Amino acid sequence: MAHCGSSEPSAKVQAPRPGSMKPSQGSVDQSMKPVLFEIFGELWTVQSRLGQGVSASVYRVSSGRATTTAAVKEFQADTQGGDYGYRKERSVLEDIQGHKNIVTLYGVFTNHSGTGVATRCLLLELLDVSVSDLLVRGNSDTQGDGLQQGHSMWLVQHCARDVLEALSFLYREGYVHADLKPRNILWSADDECFKLIDFGLSFKAGNQDVKYIQTDGYRAPEAELQNSLAQAGVELEGDSGCTAAVDMWSLGIILLEMFSGVKLKETVRSQKWKENSAAVVDHLFASNSVMCPAIPVYHLRDLIKSMLLNDPKQRCTADAALLSPFFSIPFAPHIEDLVLLPTPVLRLLNLIDDSHLHNEEEYEDILEDMKEECQKYGSVVSLLIPKDHPGKGQVFVEYANSGDSKEAQRLLTGRTFDGKFVVATFYPLSAYKREKLWNVPGTVLVPPWSRFQAI
């Protein structure tokens, strides 16, 4: 059983709100016994283990009402009583709350387990898929000819802008993240943006109090050198620590992996990379199997190159990167993006025949039937079936939260309608609210809902 610690959350920390925290992926660990935390005077149940590191484990938890979910990061007990990792991450998170691209800290508490060992915990916003998950899924969907398939320009641009906005904010607050990698960038379903997590290695610029920073494969050259010196016992002098430029290097590698569909850990270790990394970047762009307009590709390539300069003083800053012409080009998401990234809006394809859209009585019946069916999976806020292009014949269902839409998408996927497979994707809430609806080329439309069946 756990209870809240004696120290109160700072003014910047928000208490959890019912329905405001985001569900995440991850199945229940069958080897883990049920655990109850008493957090802020309320019992929370551990549903699954989301991750485990050297110093901490992260769990998905739900309140007794089962309508509120969150993440708990539990730090392993410090035998010397220092709780350094907990105190470090808590202090950084409390100092940087309030930005839409930074994970929200809801509060802190102390967990008293049955063994009598007290552990420190952070109660955090629960997020969805990580960029690491997206990279794995992207690589599993490679083309049959063996070529790697990178992610869409929309997804790369969306991720790049969100992370740069977060880094720009961090630097204004005087911080360096120092462990930027795909696993530490997560999608928020309800906020429809990517957010940064895990600030355990972060430090104040000019006051680096962490000897070993960044993860192998995403480590800047100067951090690699510094880590080697620290391992050899060489003390750093004065302000010789790393700067915010290390984060820009990491982001450059991440974006290059997202675009190319290639994991670059071995590449950045190679002699070719050390001799001429720009040539390697050019080769990856030239050999990428994704067909993209030439100009946006050149803009992205040049942006990534500016992040991967060996001299940290010449590397572009987050603010400068946000001014890249790459961000002035509008992209629409691919259908694969809308399957991977949850939102509160579900889009159903392969359902409605054109003839039923122009018979008013049949159209109203279909609307009613659709709403009745969709309400089986959660609370429906609104439902739209456009009669004309764009979006003609598609069914848009806005749920009260992304948890309901995810459940609906899971249960509807794989069902058939008049012998046709139903396609259920998510859809950006912001675009839906603006009635910005995209057509889906090649979509086959078939007759009404009554022949919906499971297979």
TrEMBL record:
A GO term from the CC aspect: nucleus
GO molecular function: ATP binding; protein serine/threonine kinase activity; ribonucleoprotein complex binding; RNA binding
EC number: 2.7.11.1
Keyword Nucleotide-binding: yes
InterPro entries from the UniProt entry: Kinase-like_dom_sf, Nucleotide-bd_a/b_plait_sf, Prot_kinase_dom, Protein_kinase_ATP_BS, RBD_domain_sf, RRM_dom, UHMK1, UHMK1_RRM
Domain of life: Eukaryota
Catalytic activity: L-threonyl-[protein] + ATP = O-phospho-L-threonyl-[protein] + ADP + H(+); L-seryl-[protein] + ATP = O-phospho-L-seryl-[protein] + ADP + H(+)
SMART domains: RRM, S_TKc
Broad class of the protein's primary localization: nucleus
Keyword field contains DNA damage: no
GO terms, biological process: positive regulation of translational initiation; regulation of protein export from nucleus
Region (Disordered): 1-28
RRM domain sequence ranges: 344-422
Classification via Pfam families: Pkinase (PF00069), RRM_1 (PF00076)
Keyword vocabulary terms for this entry: ATP-binding, Kinase, Nucleotide-binding, Nucleus, RNA-binding, Serine/threonine-protein kinase, Transferase
SUPFAM superfamilies assigned to the protein according to its UniProt record, in alphabetical order: Protein kinase-like (PK-like) (SSF56112), RNA-binding domain, RBD (SSF54928)
Binding site for ATP: 73
Ranges where the Protein kinase domain occurs: 44-327
Location in or out of the cell: Nucleus
Function description: Upon serum stimulation, phosphorylates CDKN1B/p27Kip1, thus controlling CDKN1B subcellular location and cell cycle progression in G1 phase. May be involved in trafficking and/or processing of RNA.
Protein name: Serine/threonine-protein kinase Kist
Gene label: uhmk1
